Amino acid sequence: MTIDRATALDLYRVMRTIRRFEQRSATLFGENKIWGTIHSYAGEEAIAAGVCAHLRDDDWITSTHRGHGHCIAKRADLGRMFAELLGRETGYCRGRGGSMHIADTSKGNLGANGIVGGGIPIATGAGLTARQLGTDQVAVSFFGDGGANQGTFHESLNLAAIWKLPVVYVCENNQYAESLPASRAFATDDIASRAIGYGMPGVNVDGRDVRLVYAVAGEAIARARAGGGPTLIVAESYRHEGHYYGDPQQYRTKEEIETWRATFDPIVNARAWLTSDGLATDEEIDAVDRAVDEETEAAIAWAETGPIASPITPEEIYASY
Amino acid sequence: MPATETAPSRAPGAMIEQFYAEALRDALRSEMQRDPRVLVMGEDIAEHGGAFQVTAGLLAEFGPDRIRQTPISEIGIVGAGVGAALTGLRPVVELMYIDFSGLAIDQIVNQAAQNRFMFGGQARVPLVVRTQGGSGRGNAAQHSKSLEAWFTHVAGLKVVMPATPADAKGLLTAAIRDDDPVMFIEHKLLYRTKGPVPQGEHVVPLGAADVKRKGSDLTIVTWSREVLFALDAAAKLAAEGVDAEIIDLRSLVPLDREAILASVRKTRRLLVVHEAIKRGGYGGEIAALVAEEAFDDLDAPPRRLAGVETPIPYAAHLERGVIPQVEDIVRVAKELVG
Lengths: 321, 338
Known about the structure:
By secondary structure, chain A is an alpha/beta fold. Chain A is 45% helix and 10% strand.
């Protein structure tokens, strides 16, 4: 699949925006401006960017507790995302949800999810809606290697397969389910081979290379949109940060982290691709970086001026009571 | 009237005697006819017509896409219902036994119930989970529980438990039209009970209790199958000069607090009766409400008559012994007014 210059630069920009968002979230967290906990998507940017590039605003995604990247790739407003992390009324969830529950239903984002594997059947149900209403919408469920071992994975993939639902299941194998390495959670290196048992295509992809993710996801989403049913994509990746900010990471060594960060960085990889293929010069990419950084700072500044979350009212809990 | 016209009228407004299961089916049918976004999903609901025959015949009428039979995958189908509800359908998911709700509990409690709030009001989840509970059929511990209290404890869920065929139809219609997730809990021994049901559109608003019998000496608050027991008990009590008022909650959430308090202020005595075990049961909530809001109106402490704190046993005599029977209600009511 050839990628034109505009698409390539957009993929890069989305990835770079996610990385910057995570960096700045970490500093805001360190300044005690963010309450609770946040989970960094750094290192996995190519997956959200490469998949969501094929989605329309009326396509759906379900995300995970590590959801900032999916949200940004589905074209969320950075200011409203930061405002949510800062507990502001102007946040996506009016300060009710926080990092683990950011949703943007206007863009088909059915929410991050604090329950590992919790979004998988929900995306399946969104696919069912498309099927019932006869539309060509597609649902994508992002989940991790941890989510792939929940029962929801099995039940959902089976339902989607027997009903040929337009759902693409994207397993982001970032090598750790919280502290458990994938090598101790799977007796196979080939998670995508599980798809055989459901009667759907399964494909492994290097989640470091946005070109490959873009190609694989494009094929799966096109098939789903055309009525060809679901696909399981397993993107190999590496989580650059701990499970959460502040994670002491006793389950892996500093050497391992440094080695992987040096060799497995989708943004470094994308920059090399853009320049070597003549899609953009270093100067042009630097300009994107600067624009992203400026946009991020403007978003934070806007978020910080927002009013704090308003008191809870009963009609938020029930539509009618 | 010619002798041939003896069949009951199905005209709107007419009342005919129907089984509880038929009344539920009529509600499903008319809502599916009215709104193409209504979809029914569950195990054995198609050719088999559902474990309790509620969906019998609907497959032929609506086809396999809308009477969507599923594999045995409780969290998968409830979760798919959540996703479908979030994206524009109005799914009715059947969980064959409420005892199986544990398999689906995350999607009910963490997803359906909370999405609206967690997302800052961006979402609505018009999902109905139809299920049934209760003992009395020898199905033993894993198919007989009364678990409504679990669901009343979750902010964001509505909990509905019809006792009569008319209420079954009216409440299910309201539940399907409601924009919030509803746990719609039937009782396995009510499906073959009969009663008058209004034909045509019949909507019973969620959150409205029903005075099933007016009385002056004590208030019996109850729901589901125990409503029938309480009515039998009230007839026996009347013969002994005790005039019981029976309030059928119909909806546990929202709770019709005013109906309870108004009745108790009149009768000055409260007995709550439910099949679920007493410890942590919803009867405690009713008793506490009355104690907090109407303590000075009471002539006696509130009483609860509820299931024994045990898994439901198999043998018929044991099973009967662990839930309140008519004679138990009579006995406790007399103690309360004595």
